[in-house]
């Protein structure tokens, strides 16, 4: 057993011992198991829990009835009594039967990692969409485990109210929860419809969208604030920001784009949560560019990057153009900085370094706007000229007889759109469209 004290002198309702099971399969990567437990401590503290102690059980496989084995349950019961604990938090997901058995043996609240994350999200949700998504995730998680939730059910604020259903009303409550899930899904579909309309309007105006994604506490919100001077909540804790925040950002050439901060990812992010937050996370899928923000100061950065890539793949956004940003480089040693690298294009930055931010703005502009091109258009074609200003970055204009010559920075996809409009007037556009077969111009 490994224990770590985390005592704080203040009154807190939940006083917990944290428990992790390391199976033979997980033992191959003990560092990851230890990191997961450390992360559970941070999650518990973020949820307002006083962490009394951590406990690790090494076992070939999980116990179907007691999860950690009956002998370890008795050891946990004694530690809870000695320390005055009223909650046991497990680093892995528990079945309804395991919750029921542990609750009966320990006479304390039993919470697993998924419930803890859902609790934090419930505390953080502020917008109507966020509240709907969290409640939907909670109920989806709760429904198959309802018979094992005795004492825990009354804990789910924002879920089904503040009362526990009790074992005698299980079927009534199951019907109630299923009905509520259907109702929430309908509400969420309406939110998704509005979001889709908003995206379509934004696309018609030619506004580029850039999404910040990354592991929780990687510094996405700080970066959003520094790049846009946005008034956003920033705190050094997990899931400090839950609801997506979008702000306009001006590129060096003067064009404005929309920069969106998405919810942070974490190891074993509950599937119900990913499903419920799909509408929010799909901001990344709709983005023209994804900025993957990485905490370069942590030893677990490669693992955190893997988690983010897995969630992006689940969303279907893994093939989007990405730029990896190794943030917090200012707290790394020179040796650590030199060792940092990634596949594809990346930058090493500090969100508080203005030179780094300016360099980042230029790279974003280059990726979104592409190379500069010249176009010759009759001066009376106002609709085409308007389109050029809308989807490109006009650098120079010159009058040449009855024509206007524009020097425009435009990306590949928008260049093709523009070239089709210009085909009747610009010989270069005619030739390049003939040669265009999906290759870069």
UniProtKB/TrEMBL annotation:
Q: Which GO terms describe its molecular function?
A: GTP binding; GTPase activity; metal ion binding; ribosome binding
Q: What CDD domains does the database record attribute to this sequence? A: HflX
Q: Which GO terms describe its cellular component?
A: cytoplasm
The signal peptide stretch is: none
Q: Where is the Hflx-type G domain?
A: 208-372
By its UniProt entry, which InterPro entries does this protein fall under? G_HFLX_dom (IPR030394), GTP-bd (IPR006073), GTP-bd_M (IPR032305), GTPase_HflX (IPR016496), GTPase_HflX_N (IPR025121), GTPase_HflX_N_sf (IPR042108), P-loop_NTPase (IPR027417)
Q: Which Gene3D superfamilies match?
A: 6.10.250.2860, GTPase HflX, N-terminal domain, P-loop containing nucleotide triphosphate hydrolases
Where is the protein localized?
Cytoplasm
Q: What is its main location?
A: cytoplasm
What does the UniProt record say this protein does?
GTPase that associates with the 50S ribosomal subunit and may have a role during protein synthesis or ribosome biogenesis.
Q: Say which family it is in.
A: Belongs to the TRAFAC class OBG-HflX-like GTPase superfamily. HflX GTPase family.
This chain belongs to the protein called: GTPase HflX
Species whose genome carries this gene: Paenibacillus ferrarius
Lineage, broadest ranks: Bacteria, Bacillati, Bacillota, Bacilli, Bacillales
Quick one: which gene encodes this?
A: hflX
């Amino acid at each position: 057993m490994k224990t770590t004290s985390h005592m704080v002198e203040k009154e807190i309702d939940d006083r917990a011992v944290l428990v992790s099971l390391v199976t033979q399969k997980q033992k191959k990567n003990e560092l990851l198991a230890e990191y997961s437990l450390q992360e559970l401590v941070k999650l518990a503290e973020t949820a307002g829990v006083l962490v009394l102690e951590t406990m690790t059980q090494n076992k070939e496989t999980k116990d179907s009835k007691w999860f950690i084995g009956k002998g370890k349950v008795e050891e946990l019961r004694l530690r809870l009594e000695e320390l005055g604990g009223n909650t046991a938090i497990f680093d892995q997901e528990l079945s309804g039967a395991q919750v029921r058995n542990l609750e009966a043996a320990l006479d304390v609240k039993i919470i697993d990692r998924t419930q803890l994350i859902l609790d934090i999200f419930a505390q953080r949700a502020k917008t109507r969409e966020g509240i709907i998504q969290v409640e939907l995730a909670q109920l989806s998680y709760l429904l198959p485990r309802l018979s094992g939730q005795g004492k825990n059910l009354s804990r789910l604020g924002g879920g089904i109210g503040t009362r526990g259903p009790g074992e005698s009303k299980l079927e009534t409550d199951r019907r109630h929860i299923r009905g509520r899930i259907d109702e929430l899904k309908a509400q969420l579909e309406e939110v998704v419809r509005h979001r889709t309309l908003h995206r379509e309007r934004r696309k018609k105006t030619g506004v580029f969208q850039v999404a910040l994604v990354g592991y929780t506490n990687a510094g996405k919100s700080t970066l959003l604030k520094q790049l846009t001077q946005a008034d956003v909540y920033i705190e050094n804790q997990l899931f400090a920001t839950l609801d997506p925040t979008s702000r306009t950002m001006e590129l060096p050439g003067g064009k404005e784009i929309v920069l969106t901060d998405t919810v942070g990812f974490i190891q074993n992010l509950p599937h119900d949560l990913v499903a419920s937050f799909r509408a929010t996370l799909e901001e990344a899928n709709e983005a023209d560019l994804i900025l993957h923000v990485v905490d370069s100061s942590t030893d677990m950065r490669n693992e955190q990057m893997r988690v983010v890539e897995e969630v992006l793949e689940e969303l279907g956004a893994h093939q989007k153009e990405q730029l990896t940003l190794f943030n917090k480089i200012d707290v790394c040693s020179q040796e650590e900085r030199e060792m940092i690298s990634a596949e594809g294009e990346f930058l090493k930055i500090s969100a508080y370094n203005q030179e780094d931010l300016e360099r980042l703005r230029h790279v974003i502009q280059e990726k979104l706007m592409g190379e500069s091109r010249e176009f010759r258009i009759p001066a009376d074609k106002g609709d085409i000229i308007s389109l050029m200003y809308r989807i490109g970055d006009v650098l120079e204009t010159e009058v040449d007889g009855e024509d206007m010559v524009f020097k425009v920075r435009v990306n590949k996809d928008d260049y093709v759109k523009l070239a089709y409009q210009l085909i009747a007037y610009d010989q270069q556009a005619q030739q390049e469209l003939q040669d265009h077969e999906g290759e870069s111009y």
